[in-house]
Design goal:
The chain is of the alpha/beta class. The protein has one domain. 44% of the residues lie in helices and 9% in strands.
């Protein structure tokens, strides 16, 4: 069973790497002080976000050119889950081109997860976790209303959640955000004292990729220097 799971993800990675459009050349790290708005200005279209996270949002969005005109709202709220992504509720029933999506960034959560709240992450890791959440929108945008409702029900199943999050990490890597996702993965495991973050189904499936897994995909992708 584990061999078939691994084979599935290898095939999926090859598909993603061969078919995704990349907006920018992958970079090992980004510096807040070196950010220049002008190259990213075009990615502001139809986007709403708190001003204090403009640099991180636009940097991550630049790696998803297929979402350039998609309406996405980034917002801060008090939520137990550090970050979530979804279509706006009634927009689920709209056509693919007319939907708006919401990425919610928590400002307060359970004490156990406080170290990995967005404002506590290093700058490069902030971009990485946003790239993961934006990756969810890539998935939702391809789906019909019926398929999105299906995903919502399937997310009640832990095994599906494991696969869903893992495949979204693949999307971020395929778009050139591997280094940033790696930084997030390393930081989270250190902050929460987790050696490996495996899925709760204990089937050998990682939920969020461990650092060595991310490195492996980057090394085999051909798009990372």
């Amino acid at each position: 069973m584990q061999f078939h799971v691994q084979l599935k993800h290898i095939c999926l990675a090859i598909f993603l790497i061969g078919n995704m459009a990349y907006g920018q050349t992958p970079q090992v790290s980004f510096s807040k002080d070196a950010f220049q708005l002008e190259p990213y200005r075009s990615f502001k279209a139809n986007k709403s976000y708190p001003q204090e996270m403009e640099q991180q949002v636009l940097t991550a969005l630049a790696y998803y050119p297929e979402l350039k005109d998609t309406k996405i709202i980034f917002r801060f709220k008090k939520r137990n889950t550090p970050l979530t992504s979804r279509p706006r509720f009634f927009h689920v029933f709209k056509g693919k081109k007319n939907r708006a999506y919401v990425i919610t960034i928590s400002t307060k959560t359970k004490d156990a997860f406080a170290p990995i709240l967005f404002h506590n992450l290093p700058y490069n890791a902030q971009i990485g976790v946003l790239a993961h959440e934006i990756g969810h929108i890539v998935t939702y945008k391809k789906k019909s209303s019926f398929q999105i409702l299906g995903i919502a029900f399937k997310l009640l199943n832990a095994k599906f959640v494991d696969r869903f999050e893992y495949d979204t990490d693949l999307t971020a890597i395929a778009h050139g955000m591997g280094h940033q996702l790696y930084d997030w993965s390393v930081y989270v495991r250190k902050a929460l004292n987790i050696v490996e973050w495996n899925g709760i189904t204990n089937s050998g499936q990682e939920r969020y990729m461990n650092p060595t897994t991310i490195q492996g995909y980057m090394q085999s992708s051909g798009i990372y220097p």
